[in-house]
Write a structure and sequence with these properties.
The chain has about 375 residues and is an alpha+beta fold. It has helices at about 50-55, 105-110, 120-130, 145-155, 175-190, 200-205, 225-230, 345-350, and strands at about 15-20, 25-30, 40, 65-70, 70-75, 80, 90-95, 160-165, 195-200, 210-215, 220-225, 245-255, 260-265, 270-275, 285-290, 295, 305-315, 325-330, 335-340, 355-360, 365-369. It has two domains: about 15-235, Rossmann fold (3-Layer(aba) Sandwich), CATH 3.40.50.300; about 245-369, OB fold (Dihydrolipoamide Acetyltransferase, E2P), CATH 2.40.50.100. The strands form four sheets. Strands 7-8-9-3-10-11 form a six-stranded mixed sheet, sandwiched between helices. It has a five-stranded antiparallel sheet with strand order 2-1-4-5-6, with helices on one face. Strands 14-13-12-15-21 form a five-stranded antiparallel sheet. It is an enzyme of class 3 (hydrolase).
């Protein structure tokens, strides 16, 4: 395997080419990930997610490979370079918290803390909501609390990159949702890239900006999450995901009388959401499922649909695994929505590429950014 990665600027960008044989399993991956935000690593069990994470952390050494982070070469097998895990400045949060049982929470947090990190101690403790836990022993923590402490310990090591290996595994629904909210808030406020491993599509959709799809040890796709959710050819690989569109908008008005919030997607298009406490001017990410979009040939009157957008059918496909439905791309100003309808509706309405329609949006889910 050629070891040729273009020299990167001195940022936290991670680039790698690795080749590893693990018994009968062959991992061969090439990635160039963003220098900020969350990159979700998604794929079924056995696709190579954790194996790739261990190579990045330096817990395993590939047969061949090259890897750079922030302009530093962490691995180059041809040149005999292999930076050990403790010198990589990569924080790792495993599925289990792995706290030191004989240290209190405070001791676990400060273990391995770098010289500059004390300035951030209070900030990270507050961010993770663990102020009341500092004097507890690990055995007195719930699963979600222990994971938050483990995340804090990783951050206080001042990493250039944070790896999270299915951190919600084993938690019940309420604890899982609570920790996901903390992690989402965290990833929006820390200024380092995060690689988040999960086989749960909802987790990835809620938290990731970029998505890497692994299949049988190979990178099937790597791009912005919203872009991959629009791709018809990835529908099968993204079977755990609901086909959806991810958009971002700015809060421009609150209708207090009816409990509604108005979100500007661009200069011409707005969505009406259930009322939120998001301040004016703040950004919100919205998720619109393909199945929650209906089409009309003309804007309907006297309807309960609050969100009606004029659109053009820019592309469509009939997928082999779903021959009785039609997947659509709807161009609306500067953005695209993915929609789905039955073959019967497509034929009866006489729809075709380039046609003008009205998109009727049944519901929208959203997260404040």
């Amino acid at each position: 395997m050629a070891s040729s990665i273009t020299t990167l600027p001195n940022t936290q960008r991670l680039a790698l080419q690795v080749d590893q044989q693990l018994g009968d399993f062959h991992l061969a991956a090439e990635l160039d990930l963003p220098a900020a935000g969350v990159s979700g690593l998604f794929g079924p069990s056995g696709s190579g997610k954790t194996s790739l994470l261990r190579l990045i952390a330096g817990l395993e050494k590939p047969k061949q490979g090259i890897m750079t982070l922030g302009g530093q070469t962490l691995l180059d097998t041809q040149k005999g370079i292999f930076v050990p895990p403790h010198r990589r400045r990569i924080g790792v949060v495993f599925q289990e918290a792995r706290l030191f049982p004989h240290y209190r929470v405070r001791g676990n947090l400060t273990y391995g803390m770098r010289s500059l990190a004390p300035q951030r101690f209070d900030e990270i403790v507050e961010l993770l909501g663990i102020e009341a836990l500092l004097e507890r022993m690990p055995g007195m923590l719930s699963g979600g609390e222990a994971r938050r402490v483990a995340i804090g310990r990783a951050l206080l090591s001042e990493p250039q990159l944070l790896l999270m290996d299915e951190p919600l595994t084993g938690l019940d629904g309420a604890r899982k949702d609570e920790l996901l909210r903390y992690i989402t808030r965290l990833t929006q406020q820390v200024d380092i890239p995060v690689i988040y491993v999960s086989h749960d599509a909802k987790e990835i959709t809620d938290i990731a900006d970029h998505l890497v799809v692994l299949k049988a040890g190979q990178v099937r796709a790597s791009d912005k999450l919203g872009a991959l959710l629009q791709r018809f050819d990835l529908t099968h690989e993204l079977g755990g995901f609901d086909a959806a569109s991810l958009l971002e908008g700015i809060v421009v008005a609150h209708d207090e009388a009816y409990g509604l919030t108005h979100l500007a997607l661009d200069n011409e298009h707005q969505l009406v959401l259930p009322g939120t406490s998001a301040p004016m001017g703040s950004r919100i990410r919205v998720r619109i499922l393909a199945r929650d979009i209906a089409l009309a040939l003309t804007p309907p009157a006297n309807t309960s649909y609050r969100n009606q957008l004029n659109a053009t059918i820019s592309d469509f496909a009939i997928l082999p695994e779903a021959p009785y439905t039609v997947e659509l791309h709807l161009r609306i100003g500067t953005f695209v929505l993915r929609a789905r309808l039955t073959r019967k509706s497509w034929d009866e309405m006489g729809l075709k590429q380039g046609m003008q329609v009205t998109a009727l949006i049944r519901s929208v889910s959203f997260n404040a950014l």
